[in-house]
Amino acid sequence: MTYFKxxxxxxxxxxxxxxxxQQVDGPEVNWSLSMWGNPRALSAGIEAISDRVEEATGGKFxxxxxxxxxxxxxxxxxxxxxxxxxxxxxICNFYHPGKNPAWMVFSLPFLPLGDPKIxxxxxxxxxxxxxxxxxxxxxxxxxYLTGLLPQYEVLGKGPAPTELSGWNGLRVRAGxxxxxxxxxxxxxxxxxxxxxxxxxxxxxxxxxxAFPYTYAHVSFGISEEADWFTSNLAPGTSECGxxxxxxxxxxxxxxYQTLLMDLRDMGMDVEQEAYATQDAKNLPVFxxxxxxxxYSEEQLAEFRKVAGQPVWDAWIxxxxxxxxAQGVFDAIFTYAEEAAK
Length: 341
Fold this sequence. Notes:
Elements: H1 3-17, E1 29-34, H2 41-56, E2 61-66, H3 77-82, E3 88-92, H4 116-126, H5 130-137, E4 141-145, E5 152-156, E6 171-173, H6 176-184, E7 188-190, H7 194-202, E8 208-212, H8 215-219, E9 228-230, E10 240-245, H9 246-251, H10 254-262, H11 264-289, E11 291-293, H12 297-307, H13 309-319, H14 325-340
Parallel strand pairs: 1-2, 1-3, 6-7, 6-8, 9-11
Antiparallel strand pairs: 3-10, 4-10, 5-8, 5-9
């Protein structure tokens, strides 16, 4: 990150917390958070919160993020929280759909989350939705900070699918409803963990990968393997956010709990600033080194027709007996409408 951008993020942190007391007294507490991969835009928000917590408590409350799966694999972070192995973790909903069925709503295609301001408001409210909270409660966890992942786009190798028919037969890394949307185009979906995707390309086991655009394609080396990229497919996103160990949170003194909750807004602002910074850096490189696919409005309308409502309806039907799937789905649209006013 450039000096200018670092300064901008720092200014954002200070502005967001200027009204907060400079010192929060309390006992010494050390927390460990589990994360796969390397530090990246997705982790910028939680790192900013960690810095602010340490500063506000005079170093008494420290939060350290352990990267590279040091504490747990990406698919087992919820298991680690249940076992009280650490105090928090990042999770991706489609890594373990059976563990967080209601969270899979975030991976449905064509949700009204394209505007960053609306996305922030909707996801913040969804993190308080009873079904979303209940999914985490089953693992002794609690939703804390949404990752606010940008819309996904697809990078791939081989012939570029400039027509929708070109997706037929392609093996595409895409989870949840996004994967279902790609299947509607004739692709074969795969739900590889992010860290295994580049290797799958190298071995010839994968043709394309959908990731949050653009930061994740670079973070996991996909852009180094790809020949082409889509720039306006915008099939949807997912939820890779941060959850806390409820036992550990409940054990905190009230002033530490309040501090953590008050810092969420700042953390989300830092995340979105980090994504924008990466886009400004990555897009010129993408356009220089890969073929850009821009679909027409007619093509996009056809994609939404075959992969929108049918995928929504199938998800609601499959989950209606597990939780209020219709209510969870409707909440996304209700919150988006209210945020747009």
